[in-house]
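Technical note accompanying the year-one report. For the benefit of new consortium partners, we illustrate the data format agreed upon in the data management plan: each record pairs a sequence with a C-alpha cell string. No post-processing was applied to the example shown here.
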Amino acid sequence: PRCGDPLAGSPSLTQSRHSLHLGDCVVALARYGRERRRDLGLAAEGLRLARRHLGRITGHVGAEDILDIIFRDFCVGK
C-alpha cells in the first residue's frame, strides 16, 4: 500500500502520550465546532489547541512550547 493511503488500514498509536494528545485534539476540535458560529475568538482557540496537540504527536515544536519548557524547568526571574 501507498504511504498515507486511507484505505490501507488504520494506523495504531504506539505511545500512550500520543493517545492522550489525540484525545485532547478531538476535544479542542469539538470546542471549535461549538463556538464557530458564536465566538470566532474561542473557535480559533479551539483550532490552535488542536494544532498544538497534533504537533506534539508529530514532533513539531513551536515557540510557545519552548517558552513553556523554559518557565517550567528553569527559575526565570527568581
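Partners are asked to follow this layout when depositing records. The chain has one domain: 16-73.
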